[in-house]
């Protein structure tokens, strides 16, 4: 009979220990799953963001476990989903950035944006939305909150908050087009 040494605890066992307050158990989960998350991170984010999205995915999962939520057995799948959400959040933030070489260039960009968009039209379109859509858009886009942060407040799952955000963005685009036309 072969004896390969002590049996490693399962992810489920480590999750239970983590929920009970064991930082060491979570460290084992980190060591076990970090390479897979780094590999996925290298495929979906900038090289400079890989370590950050991996750390955020683990931090968000640890927070969920400490509150009695999150995965029970499929830890890797949960972590990879958290990583994709964080990568998406960062990508949205990068899209909002306008990199310029000097302030004069920036002033030109601002002038072009100001002439291209009438802020009154955007405000009118925003105010035409249902209050719930306004709230979700404001929280997600202006305040930078994540769907999981809003889920409890709205009595929805994080996925439902994301879907609500998508509908609200589509509604804002339609209201803007309708008003500007």
Strand content: under 5%
Give me the count of strands.
Answer: 0
Oligomer: single chain
Which structural class do the helices and strands define?
A: mainly alpha
Distance between the termini: 79 Å
Number of helices: 9
Helix coverage percent: over 70%
Major sheet size, sense and barrel closure: none
Shape annotation: elongated
Uncertain runs are none
The average pLDDT is: 83
Specify Rg, calculated over alpha carbons.
22 Å
Order of helices and strands: HHHHHHHHH
3D architecture notes:
Helix content is 75%, strand content 0%. With 181 residues, the protein is mainly alpha-helical. The radius of gyration is 22 Å and the shape is elongated. The protein starts with 10 loop residues before the first helix and ends with a helix.
Key features of this structure:
181 residues, mainly alpha, 0% strand
SSE blueprint:
Layout: H1 11-19, H2 23-44, H3 50-66, H4 75-96, H5 103-116, H6 119-127, H7 131-142, H8 147-154, H9 158-180
């Amino acid at each position: 009979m072969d004896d390969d040494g002590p049996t490693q605890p399962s992810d489920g066992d480590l999750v239970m220990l983590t929920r009970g307050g064991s930082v060491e158990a979570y460290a084992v989960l980190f060591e076990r799953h970090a390479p897979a998350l780094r590999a996925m991170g290298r495929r979906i984010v900038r090289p400079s963001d890989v370590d950050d999205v991996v750390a955020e995915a683990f931090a968000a999962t640890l927070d969920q476990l400490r509150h009695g939520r999150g995965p029970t057995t499929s830890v890797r799948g949960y972590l990879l989903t958290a990583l994709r959400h964080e990568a998406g959040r960062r990508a949205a933030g990068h899209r909002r950035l306008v990199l310029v070489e000097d302030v004069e260039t920036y002033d030109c960009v601002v002038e072009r944006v100001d002439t291209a968009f009438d802020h009154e039209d955007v405000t009118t379109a925003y105010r035409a939305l249902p209050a719930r859509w306004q709230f979700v858009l404001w929280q997600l886009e202006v305040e930078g909150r994540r769907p999981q942060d809003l889920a409890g407040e709205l009595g929805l799952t994080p996925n439902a908050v994301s879907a609500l955000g998508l509908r609200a963005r589509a509604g804002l685009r339609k209201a803007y087009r309708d008003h500007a036309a």
